[in-house]
Design brief:
Length: 339
């Protein structure tokens, strides 16, 4: 059996992985499920099995699983029907992982999650993060530096983390904390400054480009002068602990019932990018690609192998006029020039 037939082709990220199965394996699993159950349930299992084969044709990939998922949601109107068909597919992937001794089949279950019920959206989120909140965090960092509480390197590092997170919406622990100095050096040496986030630096192991907004470029360049020779770009744990000790009140903290949660936390950076994306009507495919969230909504004809300039130009169409840098932050850059 070849590597392709066995489904053991090595790939870097889940988006590019293709695994395989045979119709014989699907039929064997289906027959196993049909044993000793009611006729009505038998019908659903047979229907789910037939649908899975029709939509995937023996290939397990992001493209085929998404095609199957979208077909199910379009073809049936009830959540009960969705649950029956999607759960069959998830169980079959688990069966394949054991049959072929390959855990990668299980990874595709993330693309088969049930859509959130409408009833879960009874009210808007009580945690609203605004541009003013981002500026206030930076102002607080600068004030701590000027008072001697923070040294210059940490103040610049924390400022860059705040602005990078707010402008890009990357997951702070799984992505931002893992980014390296050489990745930023490479990005800032190009005509279109974009970070190439590696599969191992993303929660769903999706390699993707992340644009660097012009407003944060001078701060990143200043930080690189200090970080040269080091591995990690950001001191994430120190930043997270500093925010825990220095509560920055949220502008709309009045919406949060628990008074102990009305201050800014590191996870609010991604939340801000998502909420700002709604305000500026950020292109859905560009947004999903950069945030690696709701990836089933991406137009993969355009984004499976995108050019960095393509990602950057569309991003800037929407984010170009967004200014999150308070005047106080520029004192950090002036300090470098004077030094």
């Amino acid at each position: 059996m070849s590597q392709v037939e066995s489904g053991k082709v090595e790939q870097n990220g889940l988006i590019d992985v293709e695994l395989y199965y045979s119709e014989k394996e699907l039929n064997a699993y289906t027959n196993q499920r049909l044993t000793g159950i009611a006729e009505k349930t038998r019908w659903w299992i047979k229907t789910a099995s037939e649908t899975f084969w029709e939509q995937t044709q023996g290939v397990i990939s992001h493209s085929t699983i998404t095609k199957f998922y979208n077909y199910v949601l379009k073809n049936w109107n009830s959540r009960d029907a969705w649950s029956k068909v999607l759960n069959f597919a998830k169980s079959f992937l688990e069966y394949l992982s054991k049959l072929r001794l390959d855990q990668r089949y299980l990874n595709f279950q993330i693309f088969l999650e049930m859509p959130k019920a409408v009833k879960e959206r009874k009210r808007t989120t009580d945690r609203v993060i605004t541009g003013t909140d981002i500026k206030n965090v930076v102002k607080t960092i600068v004030a701590a530096w000027k008072s001697g509480e923070l040294d210059y390197e940490r103040a610049l590092d924390f400022t860059c983390q705040t602005l990078f997170g707010a402008y890009t919406g990357q997951r702070v622990e799984s992505t931002t904390a893992r980014l390296r100095v050489d990745q930023f050096q490479d990005a800032l040496s190009k005509e279109y400054p974009v970070i190439l986030v590696e599969a191992g630096q993303d929660k769903i192991r999706m390699e993707h480009y992340v644009p660097l907004h012009p407003k944060i470029v001078p701060f990143l360049k200043a930080l690189l002068k200090i970080k040269d020779g080091k591995v990690r770009m950001f001191e994430y744990m120190a930043y997270q602990q500093w925010l825990k000790r220095n509560h920055v009140p949220l502008e709309r903290g009045d919406l949060i019932k628990d008074p102990d949660k009305r201050h800014f936390v590191a996870g609010d950076l991604r939340k801000f990018a998502e909420q700002m994306g709604d305000i500026i009507k950020w292109d859905q495919s560009n947004r999903a690609y950069i945030l690696t969230h709701n990836v089933s909504s991406i137009d993969w004809e355009r984004y499976k192998h995108p050019l960095p300039e393509f990602v950057y130009e569309i991003y800037m169409e929407y984010w170009g006029d967004v200014d999150l840098v308070p005047e106080e932050a520029y004192e950090l850059l002036n300090f470098v020039k004077e030094g």
